[in-house]
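TL;DR need structure tokens for one chain.
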Amino acid sequence: MARVVLEDVVKVYPNGVRAVDGVSLEIADREFVVLVGPSGCGKSTSLRMIAGLEEITAGRIRIADRVVNDVPPKDRDIAMVFQNYALYPHMTVYKNMAFGLKLRRVPRAQIDRKVREAAMMLGIQDLLDRKPKQLSGGQRQRVAVGRAIVREPKAFLFDEPLSNLDAKLRVEMRAELKRLHRRLQTTTIYVTHDQEEAMTLGDRIVVMRDGVVQQVADPLTIYEKPVNRFVAGFIGTPPMNFLTGRLLLADGHVYFDEGGCRIPLPDRHASRLAAYDQREIVLGVRPENLSFRATQTWADKQRALPARVSVVEPLGDRMDVYVTTKAHDKIVCRVDAHTHLREGQEMPLYVDVDRVHVFEPGDTGMNVTLLGDQAGARVAV
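>> reply
TL;DR here they are.
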């Protein structure tokens, strides 16, 4: 087990592409950290540099306080699990799991004990005599994880290990990996493009875009206090709604003007928002913070947007409802399944103003409602 530290790490490929741009990150001993972001954001490149599979252009990487920039992968004492499992097709499950230990000349009795213990832990003890082609995708992934476990490394590195599995099996394997980490307590760095995986697995989440870390925080902070519009839109299903309008100050209060309809914003944000009077802003609202009924809590605090229902998507215990307003043609609301709505229906749409965010314009516009409040997160600069 070990602490892993990245200090201003940069990766520039020969063609000039800057895949990783000054990433600094400290992963504590025994912590489970997830790197998440869209394809091409630099998360897998960062992981491969930690593993030693990619050369570092600049910066330093430490594993257990040892600088490993020039240390070969085999000497870094880490174990990596790949997306494609990387199993030897001609070997049995047992031999696949034992192979790395044999290379290190571990005594045969010790190899047998470690392989069988790992197999029991993963529920594949009855598959040790089979070859990979005889296994399902989930079983192959367990073998790949087992091969990493038997080495008892200082850190586990996972590169999108569940992306080849079907949706049901992905959920099952997520729970398996979480239980496994709780049992082994080994430092784990996990890469995924699936924000749901990131939210369910990580002690902390590192959100990346274009090679730059946007925010580092625990899952709840990332969800409730995104530092910019990119993080807010990337984390959450369905994604956050972004409504473009103007900020207005009147009678000591602040309002969001959507285009003829004014929504009063909480007075606690007035001092932070005063500088944006008459300027374009973006109001961020999560789908679950929209409703077609004004509750007692909301009724005297906000006004409704006139809306027309365009699409209703039943999802069992809930519905995703898409609506249009005068200024926006796609707003999604998540409501109770028993809400009676039909397509084409006109309804007032209520905004829970206590849960909104105000962003500066642009894809990575800063969250104005968080300015001066670090919220336990590290912000990209």
